Amino acid sequence: MAERIDGKAVAAEVVEKVRTAADALRAKTGVQTGLAVVIVGEDPASQVYVASKGRKAKECGFHSVEHALPEDTSEDDLVALIERLNADPAIHGILVQLPLPKHIDEGRIIQLIDPDKDVDGFHFINVGKLGTGEVATAFVPCTPAGSMLLIERVLGRDLSGKTAVVVGRSNIVGKPMFNLLLAANATVTVAHSRTADLPALCRTADILVAAVGRPQMIKGDWIKPGAVVIDVGINRIPAPERGEGKTRLVGDVDFDGAEKVAGAITPVPGGVGPMTIAMLMANSVVSAYRAAG
Ligand code: GUN
């Protein structure tokens, strides 16, 4: 049976380090790390994520502000808010929860965020830095950064000689994951919905990262024996066995099948999810240190 990678425990270690670092910065310079989270509309999943980001920021001793705007907020009003946060010296990190309502140009909003406050790592400047190896001054997207920390716990920092397959090519996970694995010397393939014979490709992976958003798509017999499996998916599915109308969270990997074959695997929930929030806190305190000089 595979080792279960305890993302909750690793995330708690990261958060503890962030809290200590934020306290030290405040004691030395008077600067309190400030994180602003912006949400537009009433998507229930987004509301849950935003609430937990705010809670964690307070746990870290941050100045935490949440801007919850109605669904019909105009793009101009959102632009004005971002410009205000960019100019606010008490704010070191700005996170705009995605997706935004259809009438707002998401790309435009992301590119308006000051790259030095872009703790999501979505701005072209930060994407470009990651792609060219300027990681020391970049912000790396939180989910891939957290996934790398979990991989590091099992395999160490140097992935020389390892084959990695990333399933999913999103800007938020797949593409930055490719860059991080490559920077760690893995040999990386990015697969997606148009890939031929995905099961066979997955079977070549010493490290398999699943980020497709399809519940339990990746089966146990797609996995190379002993592989490290990182399941980024968070999907809510009906769970009639728990009672009428009940649901449960599952990943993109069929966990029960996969854990019989893999060497190590992240559970859902309790794997990558908590790491995403922990890395957001880490990016925020790093931003505050940079601002404090
Ligand atoms: N929506 C889903 N994942 C993310 C994320 O990492 N950052 C933001 N801002 N929105 C998201």
Automatic annotation (TrEMBL):
Segments forming domain Tetrahydrofolate dehydrogenase/cyclohydrolase catalytic: 5-120
Residue positions binding NADP(+): G168, R169, S170, I234
Similarity-based family: Belongs to the tetrahydrofolate dehydrogenase/cyclohydrolase family.
Keywords: Amino-acid biosynthesis, Histidine biosynthesis, Hydrolase, Methionine biosynthesis, Multifunctional enzyme, NADP, One-carbon metabolism, Oxidoreductase, Purine biosynthesis
PROSITE patterns per record: THF_DHG_CYH_1 (PS00766), THF_DHG_CYH_2 (PS00767)
Catalytic reaction equation(s): (6R)-5,10-methylene-5,6,7,8-tetrahydrofolate + NADP(+) = (6R)-5,10-methenyltetrahydrofolate + NADPH; (6R)-5,10-methenyltetrahydrofolate + H2O = (6R)-10-formyltetrahydrofolate + H(+)
Keyword tRNA processing attributed: no
Any Pfam family: THF_DHG_CYH_C
GO molecular function: methenyltetrahydrofolate cyclohydrolase activity; methylenetetrahydrofolate dehydrogenase (NADP+) activity
Source domain of life: Bacteria
GO terms under biological process: L-histidine biosynthetic process; methionine biosynthetic process; purine nucleotide biosynthetic process; tetrahydrofolate interconversion
Subunit architecture: Homodimer.
Function text: Catalyzes the oxidation of 5,10-methylenetetrahydrofolate to 5,10-methenyltetrahydrofolate and then the hydrolysis of 5,10-methenyltetrahydrofolate to 10-formyltetrahydrofolate.
Record pathway: One-carbon metabolism; tetrahydrofolate interconversion
InterPro entries: Aminoacid_DH-like_N_sf, NAD(P)-bd_dom_sf, THF_DH/CycHdrlase, THF_DH/CycHdrlase_cat_dom, THF_DH/CycHdrlase_CS, THF_DH/CycHdrlase_NAD-bd_dom
E.C. number: 1.5.1.5, 3.5.4.9
Gene Ontology cellular component terms for the protein in this record: cytosol
Protein name: Bifunctional protein FolD
Domain Tetrahydrofolate dehydrogenase/cyclohydrolase NAD(P)-binding per the UniProt entry, residue ranges: 141-289
